Amino acid sequence: MRKIKLISLSVLSAMVLAACGGGSGGSATATVAPVDTSSGPLSKYAGVWNQGCQNHEIETTTITATSGGSALSMAQKIEYYENLNCTGAIVATGTYTSPILVAQHVRTEANATVKMLTGETVASSVDVVNATANGAVINFVGSAVSSSVVNGKTTWKFVFKDTTITQTIEVSSGSAQGAFMLRNGELFFAQAIGNSSTAFAVDSRFVRS
């Protein structure tokens, strides 16, 4: 079973943002995020992001700055490719009925310490947010996908040349506090370590699509 998560909830290890991911690769078609011309603290995160190819799958997260750059809205698309390394035709596409997450700026920690996925600890500015997911529903279409309802939950079946993947995707509802960080052109989601207000640990990494 796969679950789309809230930042810092145990899930948006997606935008969110939740999110599965892996090594770089794939040939997903980039889409252009609406441009926010404000200079609010969250405007710099606006754009189209992904975590690379995981088996047949690429998730693309589009972040739009709202409320003068003091808030973000996050939409997500999931595409399955016919080949393992995310090449060839797109054979299934999943879209949500509404944004998967909205985030409101709480404060900026200009001198936070952040533990990266590599284990390295760096000094960085992070933006702490309150993130809310409202239980957006996903629907898949395409030649490789079919669905069935088991115990009231929709199970999706994806059939490829080399494998078959079956998933039940649950979307979290509720709110949690997390943090956004940019470093070397990459986007990171992080959560506070314990009760600290200045120490964070990264739980997911995104690159621009």
Explain what this protein looks like in three dimensions:
The protein has 209 residues and is mainly β. It has no helices and 15 strands. It has strands at residues 2-4, 14-15, 47-50, 57-66, 71-81, 90-96, 101-115, 121-134, 138-141, 145-150, 153-159, 164-171, 173-183, 186-192, 199-208. Residues 1-37 have low confidence and may be disordered.
Characteristics of this structure?
ten-stranded mixed β-sheet; 0% helix; mainly beta; disordered N terminus; 209 residues; globular; four-stranded mixed β-sheet
Gist?
The protein has about 210 residues and is mainly β.
Secondary-structure blueprint of this entry?
Elements: E1 2-4, E2 14-15, E3 47-50, E4 57-66, E5 71-81, E6 90-96, E7 101-115, E8 121-134, E9 138-141, E10 145-150, E11 153-159, E12 164-171, E13 173-183, E14 186-192, E15 199-208
